[in-house]
Write a structure and sequence with these properties.
- The complex is a heterotrimer of chains A (about 500), B (about 325) and C (about 150).
- Chain A has one domain.
- Chain A has 21 helices and two strands.
- In chain A, a hairpin with a 6-residue loop joins strand 1 and strand 2.
- With about 325 residues, chain B is of the alpha/beta class.
- Chain B starts with 13 loop residues before the first helix and ends in a 5-residue tail after the last helix.
- In chain C, helix 1 packs antiparallel against helix 2 and helix 3 packs antiparallel against helix 4.
- Chain C has about 150 residues and is mainly α.
- Classes of the chains: A mainly alpha (about 500), B alpha/beta (about 325), C mainly alpha (about 150).
- Chains in contact: A-B, A-C, B-C.
- Chains A and C meet through helix 2, helix 3, helix 8, helix 9 and helix 17 of A and helix 1, helix 2, helix 3, helix 4 and helix 5 of C.
Chain lengths: ~500, ~325, ~150
Amino acid sequence: MSSFDALMGGFANALQPVTLMWGFVGCFIGTLVGVLPGIGPALTIALLLPLTYHVPATSMFVMFAGIYYGAAYGGSTTSILIKTPGEASSMMTALEGNKMARNGRAGQALATAAIGSFVAGTIGTLALTFFAPMVVDAALAFGPAEYFSLMMVSVVAVSAVLGNSMLRGLIALTVGALLGLVGIDLQTGQARFTFGQAALLDGIEVTVAAVGIFAVGEALYLAWQGRETKTGEVMKVSGSLWMSKSDWSRSWKPWLRGAFYGFPIGAMPAGGAELPTLLSYYTEKKLSPNPEEFGNGAIEGVAGPEAANNAAAAGVLMPLLTLGIPTSATAAIMLSAFEGYGIQTGPQLFSSQGSLVWTLIASLYIGNIILLVLNLPLVGLWVKLLKIPPPWLYAGIIVISTAGVYGAGNSVFNVGLLFAFGLMGYAMRRFDFPAAPLIVGLILAPMAEQSMRQALTISQGEWSTFFTRPLSGSLMAVAALLLIVPPLWKQWRSRTSR
Amino acid sequence: MVFMSYSDDFALPRRDCLKWMGAAGLAATGISGHAQSAWPNKPIRWIVPFAPGGTSSIVARTIATELSKQMGVSFIIDNKGGGGGVPAMQEMMRTPADGYTIVMSHIGLMAVNPLIYPDSGYDVNKDFVPVTLLSRVPSLFVVHKDVPVTDLKSLIAYVKARPGQLNYASAGNASAGHLAMEALKLATGMFVTHIPYRGTGPALNDVLAGRIQLFSAGTPALLPHIKSGALRCLATGTAERIPVLPDVPTVAESGFKDFETVQWYGITARAGTPPEIILKLQQECAKVMKSPEVMAKYAAESAIPGGGTPNEYAAFIAKEQARWKEVVIKGQIKPG
Amino acid sequence: MTPLHVAMALVSLCGVAAWQVSLIPESLMQMTVGPTLVPAVVVGGLALLALIYGISAWRGQQADESLAEDQSALPGANQRLLSLLAGGVAFMALIVPLGFVIPGTLCGVGVARSFDAPVNAKSVVICALIASTFWLLFARILGVGLGPALPMWF
């Protein structure tokens, strides 16, 4: 039976009224928990998973799909409206989307995020259906040397978010890198930068830093300024909530490009969703005819990263289903979910348990659609939230952020870190240090160091391994080109236009 | 079991749905603020000191699912990988001894860490009490399919002919796989370079791709790949051959008498947890061991189920601690 | 607070970090890159950047958003800042003994105060409502681990 027929069979199983209803429930609760800053999709699924065991078997999959995508989507909403990233991968959305909201374009930002997520989720699930083995083979080709080179490309991509001053951006990046090295060194088991604190042995959690700098930092800065209450409402909402024709035409290519970044990198172990969003943002900024809009509310800067985020979420499923290798905490929870549903992942999955798997995949499509249908009308409702007077709005934001960070790890230390990062965020805002490079540094530094050292051990000390291995070498070349070509290009253009 | 309703019952009345959701919600969160109701009355957090994807997580998840169904409260797995498990234990030290947080203890954590991390801030024997042994899983020694060796003897010859060129992956410093390989190296005199990863998942990825030649891990994570031919199992670390791989000799058979490494996992709680709770948990686990799902899963992976009493687990831990002291010291498994 | 202060803070951060790097023992294991190389490089890089920043701040060339017109802080800025932080501190100190709602309320009141809402009964009630709603929704219904709503003896 061809893949397509099998897929149709899966749809037949999944499309029942009761099933759809449970799908709605799943989307709703997934979004709710996803909205809580600090609680990412992994914890959301872990918490809500037991609920799925109580519903009829066919509905389980759709409910689960709803929770999964809903959790990813919830984070986008808070990023756009209150600049509180649900998790680190919503960071770009928080940057651009919130700026759009402050320009009165919250509706458009939410819409492009929703539709982009849908498009990317669909593409990702399509890829899962037809191309999973190929993508997984490609992902397997990424060893430590290739990861390191990919991170070098990402470091270059950070240049897109360095802000007005390269010096200050680089300082932010380096401080982030330093913070990222806190914790136990994987290769030797040594504690580094921990000051004897057990809580730091695991390192600094990226979500805590992101929520702290973005949400708490912003609140601290605005409170310090004292002007929020004078201007009346937090954000004006001008005009219609829907995307205009030009919004559509500006969004659709970023959606596609973001999706193509998202699912291969999501399929790699330790790939994650943060790298694709960064790369997508960088690409959109470079390709846009108006790059100066970026940082002030460019719709491409929301469309691309959101698509990348969701595609990565779909990409994670590929090695999970075909090899039984979970590539992220979320995937691991899903592995447990699938085992609970009787799906035994691994190389024999599609041949031995075809109908169950196709039902799952069909449910993912359906979950995606339900999410879109559920959330687009809600855009108007969400936007009304912004009319709450500032004291209560920010009280709510801080309390929900604190609750999220506390609930995620039951750790008062993390709450302390949250406010410490908040203070840092205030200082950064005041002195024009961009926040994104710090978070990117926090994420990239430990991964890059680990990959580099693993690669060197494997190659027995040969530094050339990063350049002689074909995939790694090409990525390094890309990084070098991206670094050198744009300034040279600008120079050449200004010379020829004289 | 859930799948029996797979083909029936499409029309679930609305009232029932709400009832289920309410029941699930209440069961999951319990009643707060009143006098102590019977344990457990809210979700139990199960700290697993490894990144997701490895044997430990698979075992934990299987049992957690069954326990959740059996006891009506969710057992939430909290993966806290890295640092040899020390941060996870320290996290555990911060939780109250009320039976709502348990940690998955294993060979590395209990037998080896006290030797490697003497000032971790806790004493595994004094600050924690064993609840029950969950499982003993055979350690398998595998190579990537492209490595031209067929059994342990040919591997040893192959390694000796290429000093320093071969690598083995592990799920992290002092993980069960790391210890097993070091024990093997000690017994056979091989030298292979150790490359640690954060958990079995990432390690497995590089082994499957062929970048790393050798690996040792428990059966659950490796079996699908051995069966599909991507990896070749050279020997098992058990005393006898295991049912799912009847053609694979044990290390003892291959000429190294008395060699035995199994990965074991159990549940441990804080010292000071009320003994009734410990006993109840152990009894629930013993019941879970007998459930068809768990038995099937264990059999598929040749795991030996546990569920014994806390005292039995304590005695077992003591024995293992004595045993691995030698390997750790001779194999120089220490940071720095 | 001026950019120069920021520069000094950065430089002292480098100092502390360098001290911490010196504490990392060299590993006995053979490896091309030990545990100290990358931290040392990062600290070195930061020190360099901080110095450049410091020099440019000394010359008055660095940004301070608060000096831009109609961006400057209105009087009482520090009180507002402290009020918000006090809310955070209250939460951290009280969450374990007092459950979620009371510290959440206090935190909310602190934040509201920092946005010029007066500390009165209305403020307390609204924040209590916010905290309780979050607790009900997330801890009770959805199972997030926020601890009990109110302390045991209530």
